[in-house]
# Entry
Amino acid sequence: MRHAILGAGGVGGLLGASLARAGRDVVLLLRPETLARHPRRLRVESAVLGDFEVDVDIASELEREVDVLWVSPKAPALEAALELAPPERVGSAVVVPMLNGVDHVARLRERYERVLAAAIRVESERVEPGLVRQPTPFARVDLAPGPGCDEVAEELRAAGLQVEVGADEQTVLWEKLALLAPLALTTTAAGLPAGAVQAAQVWSDRLFACHGEAVAVGTAEGATLDPQALASLLATPLGEMRTSMQKDFDAARPLELDAIGGPIVRRGAQHGLATPATEELMRLVEERLAAAG
# Structure
């Protein structure tokens, strides 16, 4: 299959490199300022896939037919990134979003014909153009049933990634958000790695309170979630792991605060569910941002 990667950061770069190494046709769609600095080669340092280098094509806009468009920029950059993949060029290709949150799926369906909801669980970072580092021993993609699901799953497995097909779209999206939101918000609000958040009672309490709210809202949205199983994952020692939101804060990059915390608060209100822990954590992050100038 032929693949285009929109948003070749930590996640998109890892996907593009692993697919190219598996012999797939891959093109990275890059903004002009990144295009000029990109080496047309991806180097990966991965705890899951190993260390390798692979050549890739790059372009400033989608100009050839593809079978799959992977959409993986950070949420604040989504609208600008979409301009690189005009709907008429994408056509009937399967569009697979790898963004955090849930709201982006509806936005993509306004623009493209075939959108397959998905979520990725990975810690991966673009260190510089062409270099991706994935330091932790997990890299899993969850796909919702939908257009092209079986074919996309086989492509990912051929690339060396773990793939699971979920029961439905809401479960796939909210299962990830119920883990991501508590971790991203607490680590960023506290300015601490995940293990330190787990060890500090006040932050651990906030972590699990936010998780409980996310599970409640996701369930109200129609997701089938296992609170005990998800809570046990959050209790697994996470050591020095740092979330992508925390890394973005430290690098003074725009945060995915609304994409990650916003759906819990907004949809909680729609269902009459209180979300005080999530709201408090979002406020604490905003206060840290204001203090940082």
Summary: The two ends are 46 Å apart (CA to CA).
